[in-house]
Amino acid sequence: MKKIAILTAGGDAPGMNAAIRAAVRIASGEKLTVIGIKRGYRGLYEKDFSLITSRDVSGIINLGGTILKTIRFPEFKKSEIRKKAAENLKEAGIEGLIAIGGNGTAQGALLFHQESGIPVVVIPASIDNDLGGTDMSIGFDTAVNTAVEAIDRIRDTATSHERTFVIEVMGRHCGNLALEVGLACGAEIIVVPEVPLSYEKILEDLREADRKGKNSVLIVLAEGVTSAPEMTAVIKKHFPEKEVRYAVLGYIQRGGSPTYATRVLATRLGAEAVRVLISGASCHLVGVKAGRLVHLPVSEALATGYSAPLENLKLARLLSI
Known about the structure:
The chain is an alpha/beta fold.
């Protein structure tokens, strides 16, 4: 193998740049030519290729986002689009691909490899931490810390004004972010997609908080369940005497300088991805399990799926006395 390519796809995650840096420098040390593909799978289709060297990745380990840019490209689901993308790689003499992204990126990589035969290694990068095959994805630790910092500030206002706050965090189909953030912030109620929404239970929890003499309550809500404004409206209807406010953290969770844990994870996975590609793996995901680097077929990682720590719901409830 003499030439490989790297792309970032789907939603951006802090630490993507650290993974790019590690992969480029390990590849350069192995005398491989590295091609950067701009804007994910769209760039693969449009042949938006450029040489990327060790000097090009200087000073990016601390930067959020991705220097390779990223965009959602649903057209990649079409076989004719993937066929053209594969032709572009082959014409450029590229023998292997590293794809950095989340669940959708992994699905696209698997289809692309199955049809083209081009080796692909997926580096999991998602603030939702929703990929199987790894305990942690790049960006998750940073997103949790960002949300915790914001909610700690909101807690000050909630306590001072004796308010109930509904705080919406990211996580369309996965409650990992809400669970970790809610537990770390001491939220009284955590609402996630893995558990059916029950306003009856939420209202009863609020009544119980009143009985215990709690004069402020934090509710952490994963965006995939319902919206913060809608939940706030329901609570206000049943508790007209309460001051109920909401906050949507939104895209602030995606940006910012990656934490040390994210940087170290991204660096380890970026380096490992190159080694796995060189070893002859066909379509693998690199991850970390119990602190150790692992790699497994992308098909297996997708089939395994993620496992949300729902025990945190019970723990948060026990602690909300």
